[in-house]
Amino acid sequence: MTMNTENAQKDQVTKAAATESEIPSQETRPTPPPGIQGAEIERWRTFEQDKLFPVTQAAFTTQRLAVYSYKIRIRSDNLPRTVFLGFDIDCEFPLLIVSATVWLKSPYIGNNVEWIEVIESHKRAGFATEFWHGLKEHLGGELTGTPVTESGHGFHSSLQEQKSPVSA
Length: 168
Hints:
alpha+beta, Aminopeptidase, 2 domains, six-stranded mixed sheet
């Protein structure tokens, strides 16, 4: 065995030990105060975990979606965008249904939706429309967007029809 191999193995052992020491053991986890029993213990532990690892709150909700927002800048040479992620409220795990990239308060055109997408299994079920209206209400104004796909044109047309219904 060479010296480099021995050193690499020692480094791996040291890193593993450091990682394990960061995870609280059963003995070091906080114990519930006296009087908390049964199901209350799990609620107390969840509350304690949320203090240690804060949970992001939804920016807004709709009838079927909990929507979270994150401001991002992918490259340093472009302007920041806000990504909105809509998760199914009724699902036990975080099932992402719809996402959108929005240029908030862009010059000349206001809040511009650059991208909106619904997962394949949930398309044509009204999620994009529900998301759009929730986003519009959350941002407090009109939304703009330019469709670039065939389905995008259909979605845009349906929004326009909702704005000005044709009377018979």
